[in-house]
């Protein structure tokens, strides 16, 4: 990206973004409005992988970092797996929200996408016409990890930061975006592969450092979080780079606990 293009993106997008984040991201996206499933959308359950279809999942396991998995199809360059950068991602729905954010910021913003998730909470959170039901948040079956201060404050901050950031990305998407609710762990190919990638990310050393966990991460272009450079890349229309914890392995099979997945993943 040349300096002139970078300057244009900063002036046209990032400066207004700071204002939008300070005032709260508008609930009605200015770009192509995303579509959300109705409560009885049965067609989503028969979803199959395709060029615009992306399956996301989050993984939370006691004693390990949370992980995210994004799966498009066999060998797709945008398939992605990584650990999350903060212990505040302490429940499955928060990890799944992070996975949606990862999918959004890595997908070309001028290309259509259909996001498939097994979390109704995430869909409710990002749908401006519905309010999330806080007490239905799906926790890990293991005791939930808490933030460093021993309270749920860190998780709440991460939820707010991720929601704002994801809604901002939806606002700036220039192509059709739709959400589909799928049933988890019932043999859906895309969901199962995303689940596998999330587990891989959880046990890997690769961290998705661009996922914001606090308001400071959102507002500071020079902080520890790398989401501002990723946002510039997203606004330029380029694809996400790399596949995180998915590495070239010469066609070898995935070995549990190895943090490696064959290129066909």
Automatic annotation (TrEMBL):
<dbReference type="InterPro" id="IPR036397">
    <property type="entry name" value="RNaseH_sf"/>
</dbReference>
<dbReference type="InterPro" id="IPR050092">
    <property type="entry name" value="RNase_H"/>
</dbReference>
<dbReference type="GO" id="GO:0003676">
    <property type="term" value="F:nucleic acid binding"/>
</dbReference>
<keyword id="KW-0378">Hydrolase</keyword>
<dbReference type="GO" id="GO:0043137">
    <property type="term" value="P:DNA replication, removal of RNA primer"/>
</dbReference>
<feature type="signal peptide">
    <location>
        <begin position="1"/>
        <end position="32"/>
    </location>
</feature>
<keyword id="KW-0255">Endonuclease</keyword>
<dbReference type="InterPro" id="IPR012337">
    <property type="entry name" value="RNaseH-like_sf"/>
</dbReference>
<keyword id="KW-0479">Metal-binding</keyword>
<protein>
    <recommendedName>
        <fullName>ribonuclease H</fullName>
        <ecNumber>3.1.26.4</ecNumber>
    </recommendedName>
</protein>
<dbReference type="Pfam" id="PF00075">
    <property type="entry name" value="RNase_H"/>
</dbReference>
<feature type="region of interest" description="Disordered">
    <location>
        <begin position="127"/>
        <end position="156"/>
    </location>
</feature>
<dbReference type="GO" id="GO:0004523">
    <property type="term" value="F:RNA-DNA hybrid ribonuclease activity"/>
</dbReference>
<keyword id="KW-0540">Nuclease</keyword>
<keyword id="KW-0732">Signal</keyword>
<dbReference type="GO" id="GO:0046872">
    <property type="term" value="F:metal ion binding"/>
</dbReference>
<dbReference type="InterPro" id="IPR002156">
    <property type="entry name" value="RNaseH_domain"/>
</dbReference>
<feature type="compositionally biased region" description="Low complexity">
    <location>
        <begin position="140"/>
        <end position="156"/>
    </location>
</feature>
<comment type="similarity">
    <text>Belongs to the RNase H family.</text>
</comment>
<feature type="domain" description="RNase H type-1">
    <location>
        <begin position="48"/>
        <end position="203"/>
    </location>
</feature>
